Amino acid sequence: MAKLEKTPEQWREQLTDEQYRVTREKGTERPFTSNCDVQDGQGIYHCVCCNAPLFENEHKFDAGCGWPSFDRPLGAQSVDKHSDASHGMTRTEVVCSHCDAHLGHVFPDGPPDTTGQRYCINGVALDFHADE
């Protein structure tokens, strides 16, 4: 699938100020502010920028960190990972593979009984589609 590319002006027309800051400028929402933590039942989280399906609700868990956490993406091609050396530390950034929207970071401290991964994702970067 070809990358979706838009100008900064086009993204600004589509997104709220907070969505733009997080997804296009690699920002982070404040912890414990996402409504994604209260979603229950079956559903898929899509990229707020391009509507690509990214994460399943059944793979979400409460990591206590203040951001929605998943133990895996929907599929291997759903997200891309990049090294991130900002803020004086080395982390692995997670972006939407279709539009390069910054989603969050992945850490190796997830549930050991599943993948052991914690995809710590900004809720403002996601749009929940129930019953998918």
UniProtKB/TrEMBL annotation:
GO biological process: protein repair; response to oxidative stress
Catalytic activity from the UniProt record: L-methionyl-[protein] + [thioredoxin]-disulfide + H2O = L-methionyl-(R)-S-oxide-[protein] + [thioredoxin]-dithiol
Boundaries of every MsrB domain copy: 8-131
Cofactors named for this entry: Zn(2+)
Species whose genome carries this gene: Vreelandella subglaciescola
Full protein name: Peptide methionine sulfoxide reductase MsrB
Active-site residues, as the UniProt record annotates them: 120
Family: Belongs to the MsrB Met sulfoxide reductase family.
SUPFAM superfamilies: Mss4-like
Keyword Nucleus: no
Gene Ontology terms, MF aspect: peptide-methionine (R)-S-oxide reductase activity; zinc ion binding
Enzyme Commission designation: 1.8.4.12
CC annotations in GO: cytoplasm
Lineage start: Bacteria, Pseudomonadati, Pseudomonadota, Gammaproteobacteria, Oceanospirillales
Alphabetized Pfam families for the sequence: SelR
InterPro entries: Met_Sox_Rdtase_MsrB (IPR028427), Met_Sox_Rdtase_MsrB_dom (IPR002579), Mss4-like_sf (IPR011057)
Keywords for the protein's UniProt record, in alphabetical order: Metal-binding, Oxidoreductase, Zinc
Positions annotated to bind Zn(2+): 47, 50, 96, 99
Cofactor note: Binds 1 zinc ion per subunit. The zinc ion is important for the structural integrity of the protein.
